[in-house]
Amino acid sequence: MPEEARNGTQDAVVIPIGTGGRPGRGSGSARPSSAARNLAPSAKSASKPAPKSSAKSSGKSSAKSSTKSSTKKAQPPRAEPEAAPTQQQTAETPPTTGIPVGEWLSALQGAAHEVFGDDWERRLAELMAFVRRRLEGDYEVDDYGFDRELTERFFMAALRPIAQKWFRLEVRGLENIPAEGGALVVSNHSGTVPLDGLMTMLTVHDHTGRFLRPLGADLVFRLPVVSSLARKGGATLACIEDAERMLSGGDLVGVWPEGFKGIGKPFSERYKLQRFGRGGFVSAALRTGVPIIPLSVVGAEEIYPLVGNVPSLARLLGVPYIPITPFFPWLGPLGLVPLPSKWILEFGEPIRTDSYDSAEAEDPMLVFNVTDQVRETIQHTLFDLLRERDGVFS
Amino acid sequence: MGRVVLVTGISRDIGRRFARAAAGDPSIDRVIGVDVVPPRGDIGDVSFVRADIRNPVIAKVIAKEDVDTVVHMSVIATPGSAGGRGTMKELNVIGSMQLLAACQKSTTVERLVVKSTTTVYGSSPRDPAMFTEDMGPKRLPSSGYGKDVFEVEGYVRGFARRRPDVDVTMIRAANVIGPHVSSPLTNYFRLPVVPRVLGFDPRLQFLHEDDLLRVLRHAAVSGIPGTFNVAGDGLMTLSQAVRRLGRPSVALPSFAVGRLGATMRQARISDFSPEQLGFLTYGRGVDTTRMRSELGFEPRFTTAEAFADFCRELSPAGSRPTQGAGRA
């Protein structure tokens, strides 16, 4: 069949003038070349009979088809010499295709070296083992569904370039994060999409080696995909039971008490802290006696400037807001790219709660006071950082 | 003088095996099995009494045999085996009420062990990661097994209030799994292609069948009152379980899984109830601290080991099931 095709096309392909055809063609008179030119438009009709005959013996049919086409055009002298070179050509081509196996191997080696660095063999083996473990389900999750391996090797690795290259995170006050034991990181929330939570988790992990376990709203666990990713990434529901369980288990827990009020506030209200929930996080900290570490994040407000909302649609879909930014939904998926603002994360001095006994966690006045203290600390740090920074994107 | 134990729901495999195991216990003198239909397998030294716990005959059995320990394990999860949801509800709720009424009248009963389930906690996105015994469901179950168990537990608590001299132990067992278990969940994992809810990866917790038998015997012998969550250590996610099972799975949107479950129920392939859909969407975890500290029970199998034991039965000789065509 390929032979056939080549034969068929050959009639057409050979034609062009000035391509420096094979020796013996076009020598002498101009007649053959003009005939060849005539062949060009009729190439299709010439090649048509070829497939039909191809069902029969291939060797014969090639001859047949060539003769057929030649009889049609009434050019016996042209067709005959043409058939011979084609055969030759097909015989020539195979050895030239493909690159030697050795070169393939060395290229692969080079690529692996490029991707994995010097000890690429070990790292490739590690990667294969990782993939195998994932496929066989041979990994552990903790009580909350936290998949440490996946988080470390996949989520964090995916977020790291965004943090370093896109938002150029600047981190301050890392010494305030205890090296061990339970602690509650309380942060402001902003940015329409909770990227600030992800970036905080990454920052804490990269600088202290500890995993920040975020507490998420129940919406997070109601949404498909998001819920399974959240649990695998170490999140759990923001409720007193889980918060206390994690804190007393010695985990580093992150809360964003503003919730959707904070993350979905209009751009005009940027860096104005919203109400800090009902202070549930404070009573959890009081009861477990862990320090509260205030965290102020500057820069996250500008990634998706929220200029509008579609409350009716949001209510229909059961979500707190449908964001409208200068770029979304107008630019479609391109509007989902966050603006590359420069971020500053400042961990404040821990607010100790171990001086209170756990009965005082039931005292609403104390809870409100501590809540306000945390809120004020974050708000003031935010103002300081805002004064300090040169520009949004620099 | 050992104890005389009455076991309800002996016609089912787990009840029969528990009764046999209890009969072998040196501290137990006699075991009387009660059910409406005779058990199919070998019951050894257990004496079978054909009685329906839904009518007062059960009180006579208790009085006549001088029963001092009642193990109630006939709360059933699937309507299929009982012949319809109406019968199932009657068996579960009315049966339990009659049994409790009989116990209340009895002068001999000292202990009551009720096999309950962690299904009472329900499954919802508002659930805490781990339920302790003091917590209730976030949303009251509106139908099915969950509702039955919730009501039965209510009656048992009422009984415990009225008869403070009787030690009432309630065992909330996590999903029981093992080579011999036939439950909605094991039937689900036996499907040739396991349907999953798209975008959700619930956390599962299993209790090995042997551990269930052991904990019930432990409760019947030791008589420590209270409500206890019983589950194997650790959790696993559904995706992990399916991968360890080596079966293909397909992720479908929630409504499609519900539709598929209803179809399968009609075709009697699998009992896939709405509350199971919730479980397979949001999962559940229970805290077992009290099981160790108060009940003094230590499960032999962790969740992962129990599941591995279940997998072994499913794919003999470690061979992976091919395309799931083996089961029709």
Automatic annotation (TrEMBL), chain B:
Residues passing through the membrane, by range: none
Coiled-coil annotated residue ranges, if any: none
Top-rank taxon, per record: Bacteria
SUPFAM superfamilies linked: NAD(P)-binding Rossmann-fold domains (SSF51735)
Signal sequence annotation: none
Domain NAD-dependent epimerase/dehydratase stretches: 5-230
Full protein name: SDR family oxidoreductase
Species of the source: Nocardioides ganghwensis
